[in-house]
Every structure is written in structure tokens, then in C-alpha cells.
Amino acid sequence: MNNTILIVDDEASILNMLEKAFIKHGYTVRSAESAEEALKILKHENIQVMFLDLKLPGISGVDLCRQIRKDKPIAIIYAITGYTSLFELAECREAGFDDYFTKPVELKILWKAARDAFEKLDRWKKG
Amino acid sequence: MTDSAFRIAPDGLKTSPKSAFVKVLIIEDNPGDARLMGEMLAEVKGTEFDLEWLDRLSTGLERLAGGGIDVALLDLSLPDSQGLDTFVKAHEQAPGVPIIVLTGLDDEELAVKAVRQGAQDYLVKGQVDNNLLVRAVRYAIERKRTEQERLEREKLQGILEIAGAVCHELNQPLQAIFGYYDLLMMDMSKDNPLCGDIKEIKVQVDRMAGITKKLMRITRYETRDYIEGRKIVDIDKASGIVK
User: Fold this and answer.
1) Among B175, B215, B219, which would you mutate to test the A interface (most chain A Cβ atoms within 10 Å of its Cβ)?
2) Potential cystine with A9: which of A53, B24, B55, B239 (Cβ 3.0-4.6 Å)?
3) A127 occurs within a structural domain
4) Across-strand partners of B75?
């Protein structure tokens, strides 16, 4: 099955690192440095698991999530954020994120999140 | 009110016999003026004023440093200090205490200058009656309180903004270090002699991550003494980790 993950972060070093991390665990990775770039990728590829940084230049991670949700009701979308207040968390839920991780987060937690996401999608497809 | 029931003396002794709610410090070298104001306040119904009278700025400053004063009535012309300087020194000594400046008829301009620098109000001696004095005292206390609250709120707001910015800026590189550490350790055999050193780097980076986690929990304005009278934000207290 499709095992592609989309990661969006405006910092190249983090994008690089996450790419390596998910490739190491056998995933195919698409990466984007902005929301606009991410939307372009999603137009052509069917990706159901994503990690979005909240603070992006231009369209924010929260707005990006809102837009993606319109077309992908069952996609698993995670937020990775540098700073969270309670207000932002509430906004994340409302925007349609499935979960959020506060930076710095250990890779094993992100790997588990990815594994859980694909298991969930798998279950839904069978059901 | 008779002399026996109400007497104040320049030695600063508390002489009001009643238990008091509002502690008023009068710094005034003219006994007649001090006494008149004392009597006016003593006649007020509803609020009890606990008065202390001192006739020099030096002793007044000492008393202000001692704390517990709710409001100060300050004559600008004292034997050991004159003019705006009198107010500036008192205000510096106790920036949290509301000060009402007392001035003569010909000095109103000076009084206005004091207000501009942080005095809550001014009263012209000889033109004060009971109602005006009480209103000025109560108003000064309330205004100072709201001013202090606003200041605290603004300080907290500023701290939250800085904390947010610092967290974001630091969490980015921390995320990169965390991730690359994990990747590095995956490819490294357990018996590699460098493992210990690299793990130590992680221990230190974890400490830094701990600091940003605390910063994100800041909900109060708390400071602690740093060096040479400088105060810095007490992250442990402000984030509610230490009460």
C-alpha cells in the first residue's frame, strides 16, 4: 500500500532530518518548505499521512490543515510546533489536526505516530 | 476630636488609638498642617485611617523603606529637602506607594510637575477640607492599585511574547539536534567509544529543552535577584513549578 508521508517545515535542516528519519523506517517521503508547495504536491499525489509545522511563511500550518481537510476527511494530519499555548491547541483541534507534537520531539515518538497513522488508515480501509 | 484622643508627634509614633485599615504617612514639617490633616481624616466615618507623622524627608524615607504604608502625604518643602527633589526621592524609595504632594499656594506648578513624574495627586495647603482630603486619599490608593495591576499585566504580556519568541527560535535548532542525535545513534554500534560523548551532548541538550518547556508554562510575573540589583524573570516560579 501507499506509504508516503508529507512533511512541511520551513527549515531545511529539520526537513532534511525528518526526511532521513522516515526513509530509515521504510517510508516514502515528500517534503515541502511552504504551505503553497505542499498543496501543489497534494494535487498530484495521494498522500494520507502528514506532519505540518505550524509556523510557515505565507499560509500558516493551521490554515494549510484546514484546506487539506476539505478534500481529505480521513487523512491523518499531525502538527509539529515550536510553541504552543492553550489557545493554539484549541485552534489546532478545530482546524482538524489529529494530534500535535511540541518541538523538540524525539524521533521514536514521530515514528510511532507514523506507524499508528498507517495502521489506522489500514483498519478503515478494511472496515 | 480632643488632644487626648488624637495626638500625633514627629517621632513617628502611632498614636491613633483605633485599629486602622488605611495606613497614612504624613511627611510634613509644619505641626499645624500635619495635625489639621490628621484631624480631618480622623473624623471620617466608614474608613479608619492609621496615621504616622514625620517631619523630615530622611526619616520619612526610612519609614517608607520599612513598608506597610498605604498612602503618603508629602510636603515638598521640608527642612532637609525642597522642591521636586523631595518627591523624586520619596517616589524612588517606594515606587509602589501612592504619594499625594502637599504644596503652598504659589507652588502649584511644581505640584503639577510632581504629578507628571508619578505623584497621584496634589493638595494646596489651606485649601483642603475633609471631603477633598479623603477623596484624594482614597482615589490615590485606588488609582495606584489599578496602575500597579496594569503594569503587572503588561509585564506578563511582554514576558509571554518574549517567551514565545525564544521558545520558537530555540526549539527549532533543538529539534534538529534531537533528530540528528537519534539518527546518529541508530547507525552507531553500542561499543563505539564515542557513544558516551555523544550521549553527554544529548543530556545537555535535554537540559535546554527543559528550559524552553518551562518558558512555555509561564503564567505569572515573578522575578528573582540577579547581580547588582538587577532582577531577572524567575522561570521556575513564573511557570508554576515552584510556588
Assistant:
1) B175
2) A53
3) no
4) B102
Question: Is A113 in contact with A27 (CB distance < 8 Å)?
Answer: no
Query: Looking at domain B22-128, which CATH architecture does it have?
Result: 3-Layer(aba) Sandwich (3.40)
Secondary structure of A28-97 in HEC code, one letter for each residue:
EEEEECCHHHHHHHHHHCCCCEEEEECCCCCCCHHHHHHHHHHHCCCCEEEEEECCCCHHHHHHHHHHCC
Name the range with the highest mean pLDDT among A48-52, B190-194, B227-231.
A48-52
Q: Tell me the CATH number at A15.
A: 3.40.50.2300
| CA separation, residue B138 to residues B72, B129, B132, B141, B215 (Å) | 11, 14, 10, 5, 38
Residue A37 included in any domain: yes
Domain ranges of chain B: 22-128, 151-238
Query: Tell me, what's the pLDDT at B164?
Result: 80
User: What ipTM did this prediction achieve?
Assistant: 0.84
All residues of chain A having their beta carbon less than 8 Å from the beta carbon of residue B164 are 83, 85
- Could you tell me if residue A118 is inside a domain? yes
Closest CA of chain A from B158, distance in Å: 15
The string of pLDDT tens digits covering residues A97-111 is: 999 998 899 999 999
Determine the structural domain holding residue A10 and report its residue range.
Answer: 4-122
Which of B162, B167, B177, B182 to mutate to test binding with chain A, by most A CBs within 10 Å of its CB? B182
| Nearest neighbour of B171 by CB, restricted to A17, A82, A106 | A82
| CATH for B151-238, options being 1.10.10, 1.20.1260, 3.40.50, 1.10.287 | 1.10.287
In a domain, A104, yes or no: yes
Of B176, B182, B209, the CB nearest to A14: B176
B176: chain A residues, CB-CB within 8 Å = 11, 13-14, 17
